[in-house]
Amino acid sequence: MDLRDSPDEAAFRVRLREWLAANAPAHWDEPGTQRLEGAERLAFLRAWSARLYAAGFIGLTWPREYGGQDAPLTHHLIFLEEMGRSGAPEHVTPIGLGMAGPTILSHGSEAQKARYLRPILTGEEIWCQGFSEPEAGSDLASLRTRAELDGDHYVVTGQKVWSSFAHEADFCILLARSDPAAPRHAGLTYLIVPMRAPGVEVRPLRQITGDAEFNEIFLDGVRVPAENVIGRPGDGWTVAITTLMYERANLAVMLTVRLEIALSRLIDLARTTRRRGRRAADDPLVRDRIAELWTELQALRFTNYRALSTLMTTGVPGPEGSIVKLVWAEANQRLTKLALEIEGPYAMLSGGEHAVQDGLWQRLQLRSRGNSIEGGTSEILRGIVAERILSLPRSR
Amino acid sequence: MLREQARAFLGARYPLQHVAALADGAGFDRSSWPEVAALGWAGISVPEDAGGAGLGFVEECVLGEELGRALFPGPFLATVVLALPALREAPDLVKEVVAGETLATLAWLGPSGEPDPARFPTGAGPADDRSGLYGSAWFVPDLALADLAVVAAEGPAGPGLWAVRLDQGSISIQDLPTVDTTRRLGVLFLEGAEGRALAEGPDAERLLEHLRDRALTFLAAEAVGVASRALEMGVEHARAREQFGRPIGAFQAVSHSLADAYAEIESARSLVRWAAALVAARAPESAPAAAAAKALASEAAVRTCERSIQVHGGVGFTWEHPLHRYYRRAEWIQAFLGWPAELRARIAASLLDDSGGANQRV
After folding, report:
1. Which residues of chain B neighbour A382 with C-beta distances below 8 Å?
2. Beta partners for B174?
3. CATH fold for the domain made of B104-201
4. How far does the CA of residue B307 sit from the closest CA of chain A (Å)?
5. What is the pTM of this model?
6. Which class is domain B204-352?
7. A303 interface with B at CB cutoff 8 Å
8. Which tens digits make up the pLDDT trace of B18-64?
9. DSSP for B144-169?
10. Contact A382 B246 (CB under 8 A)
11. pLDDT tens-digit profile of A132-159?
């Protein structure tokens, strides 16, 4: 989008850049600096989110009556790009902003909009997502968490997994089976579950990197008011598709910006690392692979641009957008592995004074294995391209 | 508009059977060119006051994609993409080319195939008591069809470009047998040929750089067209062909390979749009963008043809099936003006070497 900012967009980009340069905390989460943990981190991010909101940069495309800015989509995309490039901390509730909020705006009741939207923007309330289950991953519609109507409440019992932010969340957007007799896509209901309600238990899930970015959520007879249903009971699948569509559109731009930052870090690493008597940046094999990653990055940027241009003219993102996550996952996996190769034997070190950048690339490389699994495995994404875009016969 | 017009014309006048017959026979018939020029294609990027259609390079690349889809066997690349922009200072020649009366090509490569001004294949006198142009230029596209060549040579005032009529006695040509017979190549020998100066010195160098970026981007657009059609053929076959009681496209080993082809083609298409916009604006980032577009698009085209041949099974391996013609064009595109790794070496130089180049930003 850099290529074609309109005068209005360019002015917005400049205002945002200047504001971030003056206000964003520097090096707040860089390797080698003291990283905030737990409640301290949460308080810091809440305060930062409130400042972003007060400056008018949050909820750009949301209606003014719910605290938004009524700005065009391009401003939101510029926001994602500039935030990524500046290295500023993210807003405290990305699930609230990117998934729960847009879903409530599309399918929520007036009371839900009035109750939930503004505290998302200000960062006062944090959201998580309860879709995946241990037995329902790629086949999401096979989920088993039950929601049984009991008077004016649903009683929710089951287990959710891969839920970021669940340990600090106030609410969860949760998909549960309300009618076991109905066809599997028809018996689902989409609920707002208060995370402090009795019967909710959150356990951190330690992942391949050793960090606990995700959680398991155990629900045991949790009573959720019937007014917390988003959309109609039994319409949960349709509502969930809306959530996932917004996730994908936001994600495409964010992932591309993250790849841009990772590539520029990789280039710094190649320039400053000496291997076999020369800079890694002078090794023809390294050069070829960096140029290839740069090429893929530019392709992702303009694929996003094409998909979003279609979104702005037709209301539906262009089909080419569905390849972004697929292409990105593989590019990021190759990028992080190349960094380790450039480090040579230091790739074995996870931290300490001799490790390169305190083991940053080691964490990123291990983390990258999740890229082709989370948010739709690469196999599922290829299936979507094959069946919905190329109109090949169903494989199941 | 342009895309629909091109698809309709090419479908009616250059169906695949006709292209195959030309490819297996004497090649493109030069008497068919005025009909193509009459569509406004020969002067697509030439301003209206100079007799052209007044569109730009972005539209030229849209046309390039359609020409690639159809495997158009005429000298569009040689005449319109490569030679015409070098004739700007010779309005009378531009007029002839735009009208379709004159077919032109560009002779700028030595035996190494690189458009490198430091290694011009030919020299221009007066030097050693010789006058005129001497030497040989290699890999000249559609040389046998051309009436005029723009020749890059080292002249008395440094590098320069000359317009050379090819009906002179001091000129001979040698046809090079090509894998893709819809786009033939030749070697041009000059023994004191007369030329008309078009550009000299730094002007000529800048022009050659621009021609290289144009050519890379246009070839990338063509490659996207080639790949798109090869993928369509693969998908059509996978839907229709049944084995083990179901269409083979229901097997994920088949469908996922085609999905990967789609992802590669759309990535390449995005790069072509970006590079075309930059080249049209003569932006400083044109060179790495054009290199990236051609590297990725030619790889996508070659791989898509390979996937499609594989999906077709035995029939994809026959001479009768048109896929091999797409494959040959894809391989031609990949080898002309630099293989993907050579192009990436150029991109790497702009990213990694402290040359103070225009493109330091990732």
Report:
1. 252, 255-256, 259-260
2. B187
3. Butyryl-CoA Dehydrogenase, subunit A; domain 2 (2.40.110)
4. 14
5. 0.93
6. mainly alpha
7. yes
8. 999 999 999 999 999 999 999 999 999 999 988 899 999 999 999 99
9. GG-SEEEEEEEETTEEEEEEEETTST
10. no
11. 999 999 999 999 999 999 999 999 999 9
